[in-house]
Amino acid sequence: MALVLDAGALIAVDERDRTVGTARMTGLLLAAFALLATPAASQMQTPPTSHPLMRAALDSIQAWQAWTLEQQIELTEIEAPPFMEERRGEEFARRLRALGYENVRVDAEGNVIAERPGSAGGPVVIISGHLDTVFPSGTDVRVRREGDRLLAPGIADDGRGLAVVLTVARAFQAVRLTTAATVLFIGTVGEEGEGNLRGVRHLFERELAGGEIGWFISVDGTGYDVVNAAVGSNRYTVSFEGPGGHSFGAFGIPNPAHALGRAVAAIADLQVPAQPKTTFSVSVLSGGTSVNAIPSEVAFDIDMRSEDPAELADLDARVRAAIEAAVAAEKARWPASDAPLVARIDTIGIRPAGAQPETAPIVLAALAAARALGLESETSASSTDANIPMSLGIPSITIDGGGRGGDSHAPGEWYEETADSYKGPQWAALIVAILAGIPPIP
């Protein structure tokens, strides 16, 4: 959304980037259907580890640990900058087809979707990883080894997630595991930064808007924790605009840089709650042309986040008020001038907040699957692809993919294979099996 602020006037001039919009009601109806079709809580807490085909799938995943790492390395070494994920997406699709998936397609936004039909219907289960990275075109993405660590931009976030999705897809095919519900294996675009979750938004607004999706699992990063709460975020570029002029000759007119300074200072003094955790940060500052010129335009970017939608909305309102007050104060500083001064707020990205209790069936399933594998798993809040379906009332989680990793979004991002890294894809496979259901062998 772009807004114009002029000493007290607040005028909406654009209505873009609304979160999912009319799909929300469809999602809420879907959530009600999913609850009706949900297995009992006791079933959610009983992973099918004793089922012969499931056992075979888990054993295969363990035997393929080196193969999973190979997928992770090879996909990481294909550049996938923001809005330029095509090459990695094409290769991800090719690998799914090589595993025997016939119904593989790339949608209009660039998401890769492979369908594995179920035998009995019911809410569809999605397992996904994201194709994009935060790194710009031209970044050296070759994987190098330093001791036990593999280093490369994006190798953990989300090279690991994509490798896990492929491993689960391979295991189900290899043992010919039948699930009651259809399972979709997906690589999404636009998860990072200014991508603003565009891939998963498209899935639920366009591709899968018919209401058949019952469960959504995103695999993102390393370790063994569960994200069951979506940290919402509002990100804007705030621009201050005036006529500008010579720093000496035009002195006495409102200065956009001074208005920006007033706004930033006011924002810096805002108080936010520690619980639910709510944060803000003014980051990129830009504008001006010369040290001896009053700038005609300056700008800053701001990121606001909260685990609670109401707190995020309250913070957003207070930031907007601070910007409006800064424009008014700068104009009042120069009462003899009639030079205009306005502020514009342009949306970079909006991610909705949401939460599910630890008693939600999908969370119970994830924690039970972790226990069955001897894993210690904790719940947490984060900003991931799961934000969108979670905000629509669709049961959703993000899980880690096993192994160890660190320095995400930095050039020195690293991944370390552990003796039991295979438990990451085993965990994902078990969760999918619980949610999709495995018919007993006759």
Structural summary, described in words:
With 442 residues, the chain is α+β, with helices and mostly antiparallel strands. It folds into two domains: 3-16 and 233-351, Alpha-Beta Plaits; 38-230 and 354-436, 3-Layer(aba) Sandwich (Aminopeptidase), CATH 3.40.630.10. Helices cover 34% and strands 24% of the residues. The protein is built from twelve helices and 21 strands. The chain has helices at 23-37, 41-44, 52-63, 65-76, 86-98, 159-174, 198-207, 256-268, 309-333, 361-372, 387-391, 423-436; strands spanning 3-6, 9-12, 104-106, 112-116, 124-130, 144-146, 149-151, 183-188, 213-219, 226-230, 232-241, 245-246, 278-287, 293-294, 297-306, 342-351, 354-355, 379-382, 396-399, 404-406, 414-416. The strands form four sheets. Strands 3, 4, 5, 8, 9, 10, 17, 18 and 19 form a nine-stranded mixed β-sheet that branches. Strands 2-1-16-11-15-13 form a six-stranded antiparallel β-sheet, with helices on one face. Helix 3 crosses helix 6 (159-174), helix 4 crosses helix 6 (159-174) and helix 10 (361-372) packs across helix 12 (423-436). The longest helix is centred in the last third of the chain and has 25 residues, at 309-333. Residues 1-38 have low confidence and may be disordered.
